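EI: anyone free to look at a 294-residue chain?
SC: sure, send it
EI:
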Amino acid sequence: MQLLAYIILYPLLWVISRLPMRLLFIISDLIYLVLYHVVGYRKQVVRNNLRLAFPEKSERDLRELEKKSFQHFVDVFMEMIKSFSITEKEMSNRLSITNPELLDPYYEKHKSVIFLSGHYANWEWVSFIVERSLKYHMSVVYKKLANTYFDRLIKSTRNKFGVTFVPTKEFYPEILKNLKNNKIQAYGFLADQSPKWGNIKYWGNFMGIEIPVVIGPETIARKLDLPVFYFQTERVKRGVYRSTFILLEENPKEVPLYQLTNKYIQELEKQIKKAPEFYFWTHKRFKHMGKKQA
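SC: here you go
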């Protein structure tokens, strides 16, 4: 199966990736029509998530939001394919950071930093711009794919602009090794996923609903006392994104437990409420709702 993917699928994806973005978005529109109206991929999951997150919205408004979120979902998929062949020049024209200078004092102090983001806009692309806009080199945690071929393919694509993607189990040892070698880095986390039931340590409030929240980034930040920033990314238009850094905590060791995590959730919520169609609602964000034991 992997050999078949290598022989057929990779060349096909490469050919598609060479198309101009305007043609890719035409393909995206066609895929959306099939995915949403025919296949109905995860439609019920998205529908349930939106109803829970926006109980004040009418069914008509929720349906419109649902359609827009699927359109964006497919756009990001096509943008990921474009990553196979996109040049650094084109990528830099599509991505920007409004305040890279905010990180300069920390770099000058030889201080590593942590970036927190969520599944909003295009989280895959935006990490590339860090290498071009900041003095920091960036490492991002990622979960290995079960299919080793696709794991190598995606990882090589992600690494092409200098960003290092490190598997989850190897990420903390990587941070410790870098600190031991006096190497400063920026470390990126997507922290809006649901933790496994056995790993739940903290329940927070997300979109007005009490759910378990990932606290790994806060645990690392507190233990190593690394400044933490929210990496806020907005979609300017199709295929164009703008990011802004927001300081969450400069000295995580000195603040109450979970304050950092709660600040992160609040910043993510602000983005979602402003333009909810650019959040990925296909994940079961509220699957543990109501399960908290007294």
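EI: The chain has a mean pLDDT of 91.
SC: 👍
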